[in-house]
Specification:
single chain, alpha/beta, Rossmann fold, six-stranded mixed beta sheet, four-stranded parallel beta sheet, 17 strands, 41% helix
Length: 410
């Protein structure tokens, strides 16, 4: 029996040896990217969304033949570590990727706090980073030379809600300066930048905040804030607390039966508010970096609508594709473009290529400023209508009319 088993194995090996070897296996090397990404902790949901976007893009690129450098084919692969949603841990792991694992090219973690923590490491080792998940404006004001971020920066996230409120006031024959706005923010770099953008935009219309509060550290209970909202009856409610903040807001607005005519909340999709709180989330206005109705496309992913279709097929759990997933795929595509134009594996040549990026993608046009930001990227607003996300602002890209005033049926 042992002899027969050995004979079968030998025959199998011989058969494999004589089988034709594909050109892919014969000619393609590997470009190893690295990423510290949240698989656990408060950012785990969007960490997973980000990873899905990365993996989808890698497969798409590799299936299309990879990237050619010096006449040789290369496929992409990504090495991950779980940063546990902790900035210090993210910094440790990125140093491990670069120093111990000898990774020369990095993709970003999810979120501004973690990206902020890894940037000194990136600069120390002069290792290029392409990130699509950290929008804090402060990340681009420190003189870092190796970071490239494809997203609209965070101060832009909810400023369109202020513009919308002013527009609605004028339409009703009212003075925009009389609009009352209530705001609550997570105490992190991203959300505080969101707040500053809103405050600056309010000044343009001479608006003042009726309420301006920070969320508790655990993001579990904002009833004291919502009690004030119920008493003061603001015209606009603005919430920025990533996916957990969105979930808490939706749940407790339902519990307290909060009615505000215009509600703007970040991270609605990743917070799954339409699935878990369909009544409370009706009429929420949610900022997004990407939507499948955008008139954008590229040779690899096709149109925004085609990307939406294909990634839903790859990840059937997505009823609405999170923009975090789309921008993660776009970040990998930026790397592919940079390698092809640099025609080199050298880090400095790649950094130079990234600086000169001028790329049309399904996610929109990507072109970096000297500080590594993508200033041309803008935010669009979608409103939850009948459980679906519909683009309502700005008017030139809207596909639906804003339901206003919002009246939740609790």
């Amino acid at each position: 029996m042992l002899y027969r088993a050995g004979l079968v194995s030998a025959v199998a090996v011989a058969a494999l040896a004589s089988a034709p070897i594909t050109a892919k296996a014969e000619t393609c090397g590997t470009i190893q990217l690295g990423a510290a990404l949240s698989a656990t902790g408060i950012y785990a949901a969007n960490g997973n969304n980000t990873r899905n976007g990365y993996e989808f893009a890698v497969k798409k690129i590799n299936d299309a033949g990879g990237v050619k450098i010096g006449g040789k084919c290369y496929h992409f692969a990504i090495k991950y570590y779980d940063d546990e949603s902790t900035p210090a841990r993210a910094a440790q792991l990125v140093e491990r990727l670069i120093d111990q694992d000898k990774i020369k090219y990095v993709l970003g973690p999810y979120g501004s706090p973690l990206t902020k923590a890894i940037l000194p490491v990136i600069e120390k080792y002069k290792t290029p980073l392409v990130q699509g998940e950290a929008a804090s404006r402060s990340l681009f004001t420190q003189g870092y030379k190796y970071q490239f971020g494809i997203v609209a920066t965070s101060e832009k996230y909810l400023t369109p809600v202020v513009d919308m409120a002013a527009h609605l006031a004028k339409k009703a024959g009212k003075d925009p300066s009389k609009v009352k706005i209530a705001m609550i923010y997570q105490d992190d770099a991203f959300s505080l930048d969101v707040r500053q953008g809103v405050v600056d935009q309010m000044k343009k219309y001479k608006m003042t905040a009726a309420i301006d509060d920070r969320m508790p550290k655990d993001l579990n209970d904002i009833t004291s804030f919502l009690t004030k909202v119920k008493a003061l009856k603001p015209d606009v409610l603005i919430v920025s607390g990533h996916e957990k903040g969105a979930v808490t807001a939706a749940r407790q607005m339902s519990q307290l039966e909060i009615q505000v005519p215009l509600v703007g909340i970040t991270h609605c999709e990743s917070g799954k508010v339409t699935q878990d709180f369909p009544k409370a989330s009706a009429g929420f206005v949610c900022p997004t970096q990407w939507d499948e109705t955008m008139k954008a496309g590229d040779p690899l992913f096709g149109t925004a609508a085609n990307y939406n279709k294909e990634i839903k097929a790859a990840y059937p759990q997505y009823k609405v594709v999170p923009y975090q997933t789309a921008q993660a795929s776009a970040a990998v595509y930026v790397w592919k473009d940079a390698f092809a134009r640099a025609n080199s594996l050298d880090k400095e040549k790649l950094r130079a290529a990234l600086m000169n990026t001028d790329l049309e993608t399904f996610y929109g046009h990507i072109k970096f400023a000297p500080d590594g930001s993508d200033p041309g990227k803008e935010i669009i607003l979608r409103q939850i209508q009948d459980g679906k996300y519909k683009v309502v602002w700005p008017p030139n890209v809207a596909v639906a009319t804003l339901n206003y005033p919002r009246t939740a049926q609790y």
